[in-house]
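Lab notebook, bench 4. The sequencing result for the construct came back, and we need a structural model before the next group meeting so we can plan mutations. Quick request posted to the team channel:

Model the 3D structure of this chain.
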Amino acid sequence: DDPRGFDGAVGRIMSEPLDHDRPLWQMHLFPTIGEPGHWGLVWIIHHTIADGQGVSVLVGYFLDLAPEGAPTMTEAALDFAHQKLDKKEAEANDSSGLVDNVVGQLSSSFDQLKSTAMRTPATIKTFSDLRPKLPSQFTGVASDGRSNVCVSAPLSDAKRTGKAVGSTVNDVVMAAVASSFTELLRADGGEVEGRQIRCLMPVSMRDPRNEDINNQVVVAPVVLPLGIDDPVERLKVIHQATNQTKTSLQPLITDQVAGLASRWLPNALQAAGSAAFGAVADLFCDTLLTNVPGPQFPLYFMGRHIVASFAIMPVVTPLLFLVAITSYDGAMNISVTSDDEHWDDAIALAEGIRDSLNEMAMFLAT
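Done. Here's the predicted structure in token form:
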């Protein structure tokens, strides 16, 4: 009965704080949305319970690979990860012994840490971009209500676009986000020349075999230039920027360091470190962008085929616009969360990201 449709109903649910006297999650079922026979399921899980990957592990126990039930998505993913990664570790252990293998991982990690000196200019550039920001129309004090907008685009188009320019799907996503923020600024009469959007991107520190329901993330900064209208030039510039970020932050997010952290650091310490970093980073950035690849095959919930799946981000002052992108079964699903006062801007931002993805695909196709 919400005049804004299912997205409006989701925003209304998100506007209500969770009851701290009850378990910090809720599930809401909508028996009819859109087409006849389509149901809507909204599952809210407090961030103290898990990060995005942890939520996927938890929710995955309720999603099946077949209409009749088991195996669940999580069981299948963990089984695959164990078969693949346990075999690698067993081979390494057979050749050098467990102690030597651990020492080798540590040595490799420290070697990469020491090599940071060779990349000092890139490191300084990355962190200089995180000087305290000035207020903008993208940041401020959020109002009480919440807005949620969901749109979709073909994943195959993003893959073709990235391949044509020699970039990743993640680069394509960020180029589309930069384009949409550019148009949003122009629509509000803002100046785009020389402007940037500073994003935080969560990076999982989770071993693929780790099924703990907790927080295991670090946050990497990415600066997106605005005002580049040529879609190919914009994508190339952003590809270069993301490569710089990966290079300068590589010692923090390598697979080996991540694996050591997930095995040896207490979960509470990991969670506390992530929370502290996030609180500080809020002072330096304009938005948060997460792009999580999902299963590219159909999933089922209690026998029902899941036709689309979207992630919903919590709004945290001073960030007024948060973008979550997940892929599922051939689709790239885009969700923009904002406060109630910026509903129209959230619509424009989400649709702008989708339209930019389509524009880049069509431009390169010709």
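Confidence is low (pLDDT under 50) at residues 93-130, 250-266, 268-278.
Will bring this to the meeting.
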